[in-house]
Structures are given as C-alpha cells and as structure tokens.
DNA sequence: CTGAAAGCGCTTACAG
DNA sequence: CTGAAAGCGCTTACAG
C-alpha cells in the first residue's frame, strides 16, 4: 500500500479507520516522531511539557505501538520464542503458563513452537523464531546439543531448562532429578519396602538417566541390592507404564513397591496392577514423579515427587528478562520434595505378591 | 541501525554475517528486488531465465524471507493468532496441536494467547494479535460476544469454535454437545439405569448448557422423569466434580449412575465415590464427556463421549486457510460417539445404593 | 532537549 | 516481463 504519504494529515479521530500510528500521535501532540519514540522507549530525557502532551495524545488516540515495525526498525519485538516439545504436554503445559504469566507482566509475549523431541525440528524452530525477530529464546529441555545452544546464544540470549550449562548470554535452570528419585526411593524404603521395582523413562532423555541414578542411590542408601530384573523400560507415557508393569509382573519376580520415572507411567502402572487384581497400595505401593495436577485425583491419589513445573516456566522467563536487561540471572528451582498421598503404604506381610 | 545503504555490495557469501536479505539475492541473481519478490510470492509471471537465476541464488545463499518485514510491507505475516483460554488445558491442548500441525503444512505459524475465560482479556488478546499483524484469528470458544467476533471479522478472517455463527469472513465450527450428552444418557439408560445423576459444568459456558439439555433429552427419551435433586453444579474441573459428588451423596438421594459434563469432573467423581467406599461401576456407573487421553488409563478406564479435540483444531486451521485463500470453508466436525469402557455397567440389584 | 533523515527488509502500484 | 521508487511504522545516529 505505497503512495500514501501523509500529505493531508490523517484523520486523527480516535475512531479513525486503521490503527493509530506513532505519526498521528506526533502530529496530535505537535512534536516530531522521534520525540514520541523516545518517550515511548525512555531512550532520552524529554522536557516535561512535551512528555505530557505526548502522553495525552497517546491516551486520547488509544495508540498502541506496532511491534512489527518496532522489530524491523529497532530490533526489539518484545517477544520471546519458546521451544517446547509438544504444545499439549501435561507437564510442560504448566511451564508454558508460567512463562506466559511472567512475560506478560513485563509486556513481552511468548511465541510457542514445538520441537517434538527432535534436534533437527528444534533447530528449524530456532531459525523460525530468529526470522521472526524474537528478542530471546527459551528452550524447554529437548534434544539440541549444548553446543548448538551455545551457538545460538552468541546472537541471542537463551535460557534452557534441563541442563547445567554455563555460557555467556545463556542461563540454564536445572531441576534436581537425581535427588528427587533418591527421595522417592527413600520414601518407599522407609515405609519398609525391600523389593522396589522401577520403570525407567526414555533413555535418550537426560531426566530419565538422572532418575534411574537417583533410584539406585536410594536403594544403596537403604542397603537394598540393585536388581536389574526389577527395572522395566518405559517411554514416559501411560501406555508404556502399563506395558512395562505387565512385563514386570510376568517375570514373577516379586516386588511390593513400584516407582515409575514419571506420573504418566505410574498411572499406567496402576491400571496394569488393577487388571491383575493387585490393589494399590495394599498389594503394591506405587510412586510417581512430577506431581501432575491429575495425579491428585487418580484412584488412589498418587504419591509422587513434586516437580515445580509452573516455577520452571516462570523462572525461565524471569531469567530471560534479566538477560534482556543485561543483568545476570541468579534463580534456582525449588528442591524436590515427596508428596505422600494414598498410593504408597507399608507393605502388608500377607500381600498377594510377597 | 540506519545509515547502512548498500553502497558497497554486502558480502554475499552464504556465511556472511547477519541474515541474507532479498536485496542480496537480487544482486546475486542480477535482477531487481521487485523481481525476486514477485517470484517469491508468485505475484506475476517472470521469464524462465530470471526465475532460474533467482531460485539458484536463493538456494545458494540460503535465503529465508523475513516475515517481520513482509508483514510491515505487504500485510501478510504468514501467522495466525489463536485465542485459547489456557495454554495448559488438557482438552484444548490437543486442539492446539491440531492447529499447529495443519498450519505448519501450509507454511503458517500459530501465535497462541490465553484469554482465561474472560471477555475483556480475550479482547486484549485480539488487539495484541492484530498489532502483531496476524493474517487471521482462531478463537477457541471463550466468552467473547458473537457481535465482537463479527466485528473483528470485518477486518480479519476469523474462525471460531463452540458457536453457530454465520457472517462474512467468519466461519464457525460447532461440536454437537447436545447430541453427545443425549447419547451418554441413552447409554446409561440402555444399560438399565433409572436413577442417573448429572454433574453440570459452569453455567456461563455454552457447552455446559447444551450438555445439560442433552441429558434431559436422553432422560425423556428413556421415559425417566427429570429430578432436579439429582443434578449437581460443577466447574468443569476435577475438584468440583469431587465436591459435587459428595454433595449428591450427602442428599442420600439414590442413584446408580452418574454422568459428568466432562471427564475431569468424572474423574473427580470417581475419587469421591471411592472415598465413600462405593465401587465403580458395581455400585455406581460413571460416564464422562470429552475422552481426554488420560481417561483411557483411569482406574477403571472411563466411559465417555468422544470429543474430537485434534480435529477441532485441525479443521479450524483448515477453515482459516480456506478463508485466507478467499475460499468458502465447508468443514464439519465428526459426530459424537460413545466410548464404552469399564466405568459403566448394568446396575447391580444388590448395589450398596440401590 | 529535539527534529530531519536514513534505514530496517520487504511489497506493490506506476511506468515502461 | 521488469525496474525504480514509495511506502509499511517505527528507531536511531547525526546535527543542531
């Protein structure tokens, strides 16, 4: 839509058609566009009088700066890209909410894209976000290499979760998965369980390995020998938890407690147990990890390790905001803690499987 | 970053610093920027030779058009705004995934914003999306008035779900909530239940009212008198389903089946029932609505009405794509259907509550 | 303190 | 078919 130089002053009525531009505000306030821009951005000191006139014009016209133009001209778009893995993940969804809330408070908006646990897709996401001129990028775990992350941090601030990574312009937030799993195992052991099965998560996932290590450490601390026959392989979703439990049961190796590397698998495990007429917790105690909101309403309510998903997102966003202001973030995630509900109890001597 | 007219030709090496611009491509191909733009957009017929040269230059330089500039200049940003209510909703999350997938196929990206079931927040979302120059807006249900939606459709294509609304440049996609609820009730009645309680959803929510109507219609068809004492008020989340069930139980009004207006409330109901030592389905059959992915793994697996969330999103996006091409969408959502799992069964004569 | 001007990277009438 | 130019709505050196 070229050829529309504002030869004749645009209708500066509040309800003129088309959005109000900075130009119009400048005109209404009797100053130059530069001045309006400076006031908007707090870029320079401006005389009281002009500032007032401009503020009034802005209010009167209901002017809202166009982020697109802003991004093109100045580089800042007031948006931050968020690479998540799946837009409908029950765990990360809460983190997205945390990001949204925290960013909103500072006038930024998130741009959510899904990497589907695939490094090359995540790389495409980052290219896309960069082409949309986001001011920074938050990467929720994922499979990108640390090197790739450091690389993008050379041109854009990045905050990553699920890693311990230190680099200029890059902050990472890591939850103590090891400690969480250790606590879960300790909880079960302290209840008196000696035979504690484990359903591991996807082994390509860093969290999965940490949780397995935590399980082993918990066992060791309780002087329970590690039995590889008691660990099943899962994929972090319900179905896999159900299947792994069935396989564990089929080995006829006995166990009185089962710790799944996340709640989704624990829920699947509960169903498998019920299908074999094993009661939770009377016959088998079940422990999850993550503390999804639904876990509180499962039958029975699931004991688990609280994983602060909302804070994860919120802190990641706060860290990004710091980086954007040129400050150094110093945020730490809450420590894991046991949420004991009704799916865990002391083993019953006369249990069906003991 | 003014004052950098390309007096000296920019380094057109593929790995020159900064992103490759259309200018650079034009230069490398020996044509004008206009021509490159036309080829990119298929806006005009261009001679074979030039087209080839440009295509090669694009490939060589790895040029990717800047959507921000594109949006400013031409109006199209290849992005569509999506007003959802909460970024972590278990039901709408799946719809977001459908939108993402469908849009991606056409080279568009979604911009997700949350309205939190609040008309004024939703209005802010729409302003924000418009200021970001999205090409169209998808509104997932929400509380905006039909008039407001029609109004925004005057300047931007809009697709809405959860309404039956016809207007120029506006398409709406509505799931048959009434029929779904009728089917659910029929399912219960055909199993032999005569006393069917109902937990309604938030009455400001249009779906909630349709589902209540469907319940009543189902009752009527089965010649079961409607008993207002048997309907509890819920808020569409687990907690409210649990509480409503407890209240229902406290009235000591007997019922052998319970139909909740969504799965989340049904899950809460199951827990409440279990707490009172009532077994599902032996003592009380429980039916949900939505068919969330977790419902398949609850204990017992929940019978429900399948609500095609993924298709809801996918079709909404497809409809938007149609509108954007100037075509008339003609998409219809799949009909509701009963998914009978293990939480429903014929009433037992000797049931604790019958 | 403040304005005029150039520029961000594209698109699209306008003229050949 | 194709180029030069103006414009999208801002920002920011450059000069007062």
What is the C-level CATH assignment of the largest domain in chain A?
Alpha Beta
- Domain count of chain A: 3
Secondary-structure-derived class of chain A: alpha/beta
Task: State the CATH topology of the largest domain in chain A.
Answer: Rossmann fold
Q: Could you please describe the fold and organization of this structure?
A:
2 copies of one chain form a homodimer. Chain A has 354 residues and is an alpha/beta fold. Chain A has 3 domains: 1-65, lambda repressor-like DNA-binding domains (434 Repressor (Amino-terminal Domain), Orthogonal Bundle), CATH 1.10.260; 78-174, 3-Layer(aba) Sandwich (Rossmann fold); 177-307, Response regulator (Rossmann fold, 3-Layer(aba) Sandwich), CATH 3.40.50.2300. Chain A is built from 12 helices and 11 strands. The first copy, chain A, has helices at residues 22-29, 33-41, 48-61, 67-74, 92-105, 119-131, 146-152, 177-190, 206-221, 238-250, 263-275, 309-324, and strands at residues 79-84, 109-114, 136-140, 158-161, 170-173, 196-200, 231-233, 257-260, 285-287, 304-306, 337-339. In chain A, the strands form 3 sheets. Chain A has a 5-stranded parallel sheet with strand order 2-1-3-4-5, with helices on both faces. In chain A, helix 9 (206-221) links the parallel strand 6 (196-200) and strand 7 (231-233). In chain A, helix 1 (22-29) crosses helix 2 (33-41), helix 1 (22-29) packs across helix 3 and helix 8 packs parallel to helix 9 (206-221). The radius of gyration of chain A is 27 Å and the shape is elongated. Chain A starts with 21 loop residues before the first helix and ends in a 15-residue tail after the last strand. Mean pLDDT of chain A is 91; it is low at 1-16. Chains A and B meet through helix 4, helix 5, strand 2, helix 6 and helix 10 of A and helix 4, helix 5, strand 2, helix 6 and helix 10 of B. Chain A binds a DNA duplex (16 and 16 nucleotides) through residues 1-5, 19, 21-23, 31-38, 40-41, 43-47, 50, 65-66, 68-76.
